[in-house]
Amino acid sequence: MSKTTENLKAAFAGESQANRKYLAFAHKAEQEKKPYAARIFRAAAEAETVHAHAHLQALKAVAATEENLKEAIVGETFEFTDMYPDMIKAAQVEGDKTAERSMTLANEAEKIHAEFFKKALANPGQAATQIFICSVCGHVAEGHAPDTCPICGSKTRAYKEIA
């Protein structure tokens, strides 16, 4: 692998992490009623997305939808079969209940994400349906938000519709 490819991959990872971090910072600023700071964080997050997408394009890492779906299935499956189980065990050994819960919820959600990608791969051109995501654990529901999240137990109000 060339140094430039390594750099693009590292830059993509950094920009992606900055995007997510800045969105979390924006949420906190909103909770603290600091709208200007929140807006600046959201703007920077969007700029980081622009950078991350440019790096992916330079890496030629965005393929046809069917190939992208296959890659997503592999990635999600790795997360719930290998990555999170090992991380959950480490959190348990260290007694970090917060990390254990966070990773356990994510692990369960990843299984559902993989199933949705498989469904989309089977019929990628099907008409779009309403999709909802639990803002607590990342559970994805199709058609309507459940009364209670099957993963974390949150109520319907925790779900957001995805456009």
Walk me through what this model shows.
The chain is mainly α. It has 4 helices and 3 strands, in the order H-H-H-H-E-E-E. The chain has helices spanning 3-31, 35-58, 65-94, 97-122, and strands at residues 131-134, 140-142, 159-162. A 3-stranded antiparallel beta sheet has the order 2-1-3. Strand 1 and strand 2 (140-142) form a beta hairpin. The termini are far apart.
Report the principal-axis shape.
Answer: globular
Widest sheet, order of strands: 2-1-3
C-alpha-based Rg, rounded: 18 Å
Distance between the termini: 37 Å
SSE succession: HHHHEEE
List keywords for this structure.
163 residues, mainly alpha, Ferritin, Rubrerythrin, domain 2, 3 domains
